Recover the amino acids of this structure.
């Protein structure tokens, strides 16, 4: 005799599991596309933007100016965190994911058709800054939505694992960005690349955005937000509520992120410029090294997230934070040898630390804030940490190396920000109990 009640329940569990996996994959793919858009800008900044948009400056000053436009996007991210967070807590997580992806895609594609200084004069760098601000606003809220969709759909005890899907989009987007640039730079002459080839990665974004939209439109709203909407318990001013009720959580979360984002941008933005302009290594060599490091970063994110489900977020963060502190000095000592295998060792170990401090982040930030202002709290803390850490890291690193003539000054800067984040991690709550939704 068939027990239809048990069969029906089993079928519901299977359907639910399939949907959760679909949400996780949609989070990963959408975030990958979003960060591909973001990272092709940083790669182009390191390779050609100083010549195209700031040709009247010296090479060093042009690089500083180009990295300054990179930092402008970070300044806009807290604004994006507030705007997307407000509507994410009021309207829904899914709608904000779609809107942020569209904004990022359009801004990125517009960079691909932007006139250079030779054509438009001062208007060219001005327009570049405006488009970078739009990218920053988009990135400020996209991460929070992707992270919460994955975490809030996750089964109990697996929030770290499912939250990692939004995290792997960052190194995955970086890998794709580097591969596209690697292909373009090796398919064209240097003259053709500087003339028009650099635009190709930006225009490819339009195709990727369409793919991301199709995937994200197919997933359901977060069940946590659906319950909030049904019960009418949504916050009227979520950013005000989170700053009033959880200021310590916002501060600790933001400070815990500055080392990851600062050292991350030293790795994939400044290192490319340093390797090609100071060490005189080929762009192909540097792009390959960054791709290798990014693959290690992606794998370590997944491993760190799964580990955090077993031993707690704080313990994994501590391991990664300590590694970032102690590896900052050896990192540039190995890079400065100009030996590809030693350079590879430097980026591999660094990215193990980055993965351990990024993999558990989605679950941790979600657990720090109540559902009714969770989007605002997580997004704002993430954006502020990004500004304090990664926003001007390549600019600071370039200025330090240029003024001192040694990479040791950059290593000391890395140690300083890593120590700040280590202190914040020590202030994390000791419990691994998840806030019940």
């Amino acid at each position: 005799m068939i027990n239809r009640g048990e069969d029906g329940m089993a079928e519901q569990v299977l359907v639910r599991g399939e949907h959760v996996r679909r949400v996780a994959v949609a989070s990963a793919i959408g975030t990958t596309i979003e960060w591909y858009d973001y990272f092709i800008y940083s790669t182009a900044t390191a390779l050609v933007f100083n010549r195209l948009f700031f040709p009247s400056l010296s090479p060093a000053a042009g690089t500083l100016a180009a990295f300054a436009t990179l930092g402008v996007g970070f300044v806009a991210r807290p604004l994006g965190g507030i705007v997307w967070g407000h509507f994410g807590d009021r309207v829904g997580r899914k709608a904000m994911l779609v809107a942020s992806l569209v904004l990022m895609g359009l801004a990125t594609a517009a960079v691909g058709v932007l006139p250079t200084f030779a054509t438009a004069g001062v208007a060219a760098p001005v327009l570049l800054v405006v488009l970078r601000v739009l990218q920053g606003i988009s990135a400020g809220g996209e991460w929070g939505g992707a992270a919460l969709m994955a975490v809030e759909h996750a089964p109990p005890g697996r929030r770290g694992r499912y939250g990692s899907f939004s995290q792997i989009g960052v190194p995955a987007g970086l890998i794709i960005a580097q591969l596209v640039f690697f292909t373009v730079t090796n398919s064209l002459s240097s003259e053709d690349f500087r003339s028009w080839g650099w635009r190709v990665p930006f225009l490819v974004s339009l195709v990727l955005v369409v793919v991301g939209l199709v995937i994200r439109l197919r997933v359901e709203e977060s069940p946590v937000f659906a319950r909030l909407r049904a019960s009418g318990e949504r916050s009227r001013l979520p950013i005000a509520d989170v700053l009033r009720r959880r200021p310590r959580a916002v501060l600790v979360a933001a400070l815990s992120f500055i080392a990851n984002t600062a050292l991350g941008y030293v790795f994939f933005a400044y290192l490319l410029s340093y390797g090609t302009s100071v060490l005189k290594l080929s762009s192909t060599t540097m792009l390959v090294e960054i791709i290798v490091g990014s693959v290690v970063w992606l794998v370590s994110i997944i491993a760190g997230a799964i580990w955090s489900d077993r031993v707690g977020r704080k313990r994994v963060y501590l391991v990664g934070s300590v590694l970032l502190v102690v590896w900052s000095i050896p990192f540039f000592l190995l890079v400065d040898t100009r030996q590809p295998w030693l350079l590879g060792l430097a980026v591999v170990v660094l990215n193990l630390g980055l993965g351990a401090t990024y993999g558990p982040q989605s679950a941790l930030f979600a657990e720090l804030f109540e559902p009714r202002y969770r989007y605002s709290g997580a997004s704002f803390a993430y954006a502020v940490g990004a500004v304090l850490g990664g926003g001007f890291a390549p600019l600071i690193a370039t200025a330090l190396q240029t003024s001192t003539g040694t990479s040791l000054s950059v290593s000391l800067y890395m140690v300083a920000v890593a120590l700040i984040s280590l202190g914040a991690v020590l202030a994390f709550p000791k419990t691994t109990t998840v806030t019940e939704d």
